[in-house]
Amino acid sequence: MGSKTFERSQEVSDVRGQIDHPIIDGDGHLIEFVPWLRDLIVEIADESVAKQFDALVHGSAAIRGVPEDARRELGISRSSYWALPARNTLDRATAMLPELLYERLDEIGIDFALLYPTYGLTVVGIPGAELRGAVARACNRYIAEAYAPFRDRLEPVASIPMFTPDEAVAELNYAVGELGLKSVMMAGVVPRPFEGASNERTSRWMDTLGHDSLYDYDPVWQRCLDLGVCPTFHASGMGWGSRTSTTNYVYNHIGNFATAGEATARSLIFGGVTKRFPELRFAFLEGGVAWGVNLLADLIGHYEKRNRRSLEHYNPANLDRPGLAQLIADYGTQGHRDRADNLDLALAMLSDPDERPDQVDDFAESMLTSVDDIVDIFSRQYFFGCEADDPMNAMAFDASKNPANAKLQAIFASDIGHWDVPDFRGVVPEAWELVDDGHITTDDFQAFTCDNITALLTAGNPDYFANTIITT
Questions:
Q1: Mean of pLDDT values over 125-131
Q2: Which of 148, 296, 329, 440 is spaced 20 to 30 Å from 56 by Cα?
Q3: Over the stretch 439-458, which tens digit does the pLDDT of each residue have?
Q4: DSSP string for residues in 132-158
């Protein structure tokens, strides 16, 4: 171990002095040491694949060489730059060196941390199967080897590519079954080229793994159950939808994790995944919880009015045509009455009586039978990664304002290692500000920083915290 002593700030000490529970970081970030990672890629694949990885590492330079007026045509949007600590060199080294982070945990105020990858975040979106598979495997070997001595307090998270169910199951078997990793990260959105598209980058649709997916991902969810891991999604919404600026990263970044998480959460529900696998828990990271509250409200509102029984209220077959004709005669202007014999045209739009009977129940695949089913998913199966400085985190705990008086399971996510955190020592005091400001209680803070993440991780693996400093 190193010889330097790292002392807590007064702010961190003040928070820790007011609680009697551990603080578990549900989403910190490690920064892979690229020379080591590259050597593993060569070992797993070969030098030619490693050179493809080099191009990925130096992608910013390649994009700078593309004229701005050509980027739109090529489907190149402005992506991350200057996204890691620099002036705060200690924090940069801390995210890169496991032993240094291990020694600084007490100073930061965190007892146990899940560490998501950085380069591994890009792995799950690489379109080339050979490169994607090699880098994913290398990332998982790297974290298993580099963090092996420190897993009583640091748990690195495996990268699981999801372009096909077969590759996902294979990497789950390797990362969890062989390497012994206990947490996994997936992309909940997979970009697919439209059939026959001449430019894959500009002609893509987003497969969200549940409803309307190209593949049946049930074998993946079943394998997660078998292995005792919960799917966590850490996908980006940049480069699709409205986030395609060719020049402005922040414009593309704002709301992008929430957009990607919402797409997957909605797809899993409408695809019936949450009902077929009720024991499984799912986490959506770095997008906060506000979108979750909104989706919950939206689903309830739509279900109440457009479930199969309620939909009969709008079935054109139930229209009283003679009664409508009489109302036109009694209250219509001369223009209405002169054209009353063409009532079919007046009623055609948005009221076609010939819709296919098998396509008028939008909730059939979801297997939802009540509003209680929806609330159960959001309050038991779904978890929401929330950065410490997000004031909207309080929404998760404000049952009086939430639909059906639900509390959502927000989990504390420091995001240390990335630009969101200028100083690692600030994340715990930032999270506590909601208590100081009266927006959440100390019990809510315990749920946020300890109880919810514990419930997520131990649902499939009761022994998740065995041989760690956390006792459950």
A1: 90
A2: 148
A3: 999 999 999 999 999 999 99
A4: HHHHHHHHHHHHHHHTGGGTTTEEE-E
